[in-house]
Amino acid sequence: MRIAMIGSGYVGLVSGACFSEFGVEVVCMDKDAGKIERLRRGEIPIFEPGLEALVKSNVEGGRLSFTTDLAAAMKGADAVFIAVGTPSRRGDGHADLSYVYQVAKDIAGVMDHYTVVVTKSTVPVGTGREVQRIIREARPDAEFDVVSNPEFLREGSAINDFMRPDRVVIGAESDRAREMMRKLYRVLYIIETPILFTNRETSELIKYAGNAFLATKITFINEIADLCEKVGADVHDVAKGIGLDGRIGKKFLHPGPGYGGSCFPKDTLALTKTAQDYNSPIRIVETVAQVNDERKVRMAMKIITACGGSVRGKTIAILGLTFKPNTDDMRDSPSLDIIPALQTAGATVRVFDPEGMHEAQKMLPGAVFCKDAYDAMEGADAAAIVTEWNQFRALDLKRVKTLLKSPIIVDMRNIYTPADMLAAGFQYTCIGRPSAALGSN
Fold first, then answer.
1. Cβ(149)–Cβ(170) below 8 Å
2. Quick one: CA torsion of 339, 341, 345, 350, rounded to 10 degrees?
3. Which letter, b or e, does each residue of 341-367 get, where b requires 16 or more Cβ atoms within 10 Å of its Cβ?
4. pTM surpassing 0.85?
């Protein structure tokens, strides 16, 4: 089989590389000539563990290639995937579908045989129907079907998520399109991956509903963590106690500074806007988004409180800038709220992240970018762990104590234990555990 992947960003590049690993001939197309040239040189524009090696092996195997020419990409293709961005639209929070619709117009202009057009981008309900209308209006004579096939890739583990997914969701309206998608995912049929066929609208909604539910779980445990600090309970034990209930499950019950990234913030917002448009508001998700936004700002106050109520004239070290480890993605990261709030409060902020420094420099003016975690902490009045990178899990605490002016650590990911930190002589603030509630913050 041969497919074209339109858009060579995170979703398009990972999906294209993984399909080529399945033995499919894949051409990734992007209008950004600089990006395509870098990819042809073997330079990967995003950080994702294992992706560079996967791209390299499939390029060398002749199954994966890159182009800026849409007609060349679609020549002989059985399916063309739309994998362009759908950011929140400025002003109203709806998903910006202008890139998706432009690609639909472009596809119509070069389509010359039956083609399955697949929306891989995260799109609101009704987008597939509109893509079909756009193509049909431009090409009344064309033979094609439009299919919804949402991605469920977690940054940092995207390749495994694609190769061994929990499920594949395909929204298709014709037997011909369904059969084409079955052939494309044949490898996953062999390993008995659940593949759910639905109509397009259902498929589109599954993606948003799934992300909204996970965002709700994160926000729920964060609010429970706040209550734990007030009453002297341990949020980790609470999470374990409820997570052992099979109806709830243990995943996404880890307290922290709030969710971020490329999906949850924009998808929860887009879902609530769509629901409002259909006069079926989803109040729970609206509240989740509001609470999460407020939480990120409150995390700066947690640091200020740990420093005695003021950080004016003080230096704060921030360890971790990306919204999660094993990615360079800074989109809606809690650090983008925490650091400016500290700066506004009069602090100098020294920062380090293993992969996010390049992107962060564009977003955090005035921050001091350091070569490693210890460099960031040298001479600082306090340090805060914002992202749980593995290299922060085993810091040399004796060295840390000599570097900091005051032995103050704010651990927003609970990667250390209160007993160990107190024994090491630190004033330790964490999230939702008794030590924080009983006076260490």
1. yes
2. 0
3. bbbebebbbbbbbbbbbebbeebbeeb
4. yes
Residue 376 exposure: Cα atoms within 13 Å on the Cβ side: 26
pLDDT of residue 437: 38
Angle, helices 283-306/200-231, rounded to nearest 10 degrees: 40
Question: What pLDDT sits at residue 439?
Answer: 42
| Cα gap 436→213, rounded to integer Å | 28
263 catalytically annotated: yes
Domains of the chain by start residue, with CATH: 2-198 (3.40.50.720), 217-440 (3.40.50.720)
Strands (E), 299-342: 315-319
Distances (CA, A) of 222 to 56, 89, 253, 276, 283: 41, 28, 8, 26, 18
SS3 160: helix
Q: Tell me how far apart the alpha carbons of residues 317 and 381 are, in angstroms, rounded to a whole number.
A: 8
Active-site residue, from 28, 263, 370, 430: 263
- Please, which residues bridge with residue 27 across strands? 4, 65
**Residue found by looking up tokens 């950011």 in the block:** 87
Instruction: Please tell me what DSSP assigns to residue 215.
Output: H
* Angstrom distance (rounded) from CA 38 to CA 129: 35
* DSSP symbol at 324: S
> Which tokens is 270 given?
């887009």
User: What is the rounded CA–CA span in Å between residue 246 and residue 248?
Assistant: 5
Give the mean pLDDT per block of 10 residues along the chain (441 residues): 96 97 97 96 94 97 98 96 92 89 97 96 96 97 97 94 96 97 93 95 97 98 97 96 97 96 93 95 97 96 97 98 96 97 98 96 97 98 98 96 97 96 95 63 42
